[in-house]
Amino acid sequence: MRSLDSTSPFRQAFKDDRDNYYTAHGKYVALRIPPSEGNQSLRGRIRAGQLDQRVVRKAEGRALEAVRAYDRGTATLTAALKALREYERIFDLKGRDRTEEYRSVLEVCPWQKCPCAICRRWGVEVAIFRGTERNKRRGFHNLWVFNQTMKEQIAGMDEIRETEMEMIGEPV
Predict the structure, then answer these.
(1) What percent of the chain has pLDDT over 70?
(2) Structure confidence at residue 33 (pLDDT)
(3) What is the SS3 assignment for 41-90?
(4) What is the CB-side half-sphere exposure of residue 46 using CA atoms within 13 A?
(5) Any residues with CB less than 8 A from the CB of 61 and at least 6 apart, and which?
(6) Residues 141, 110 contacting (CB under 8 angstroms)
(7) Is the CA virtual torsion 42, 62, 135, 147 positive or negative?
(8) Beta carbons within 10 angstroms of residue 35's beta carbon
(9) Helices 99-108 and 77-91, interaxial angle, to 10°?
């Protein structure tokens, strides 16, 4: 190996459409719950009379609370997915339905098993695609996972090299 792109894991946390949250076993989409405050697209649609600000804020609040309650074990997966979908219908002008992608990440709750300091400190908040600070935290989580994976790969290569050296009678 001659080079390595170490910025991709960080950038994917907030630039990629799908692979935002890394684990040792794969990547997941982050749960999109954009803030209604300061969101230019939503703000413009509210001003134009296309959306009711109270409806938008309630849907946003329900999505956040449903995901947090599911993480605590006080709400069902169905309730969390329903609230996420309700808010997605409001903010996503492309008409996407990420329900199955959200189901995949919520069924696993990888932040609950992740030993990195960010996941231990922030929990499910790391998996919510929302504001700059939390998206950067997810980026640093991704870099931590990437680093761990690289360490494991290097250790595995060292073991193979040592075995090969022993097989040909060279000192290790």
Answers:
(1) 87
(2) 95
(3) HHHHHHHCCCCCHHHHHHHHHHHHHHHHHHHHCCCCHHHHHHHHHHHHHH
(4) 16
(5) none
(6) no
(7) negative
(8) 13
(9) 140
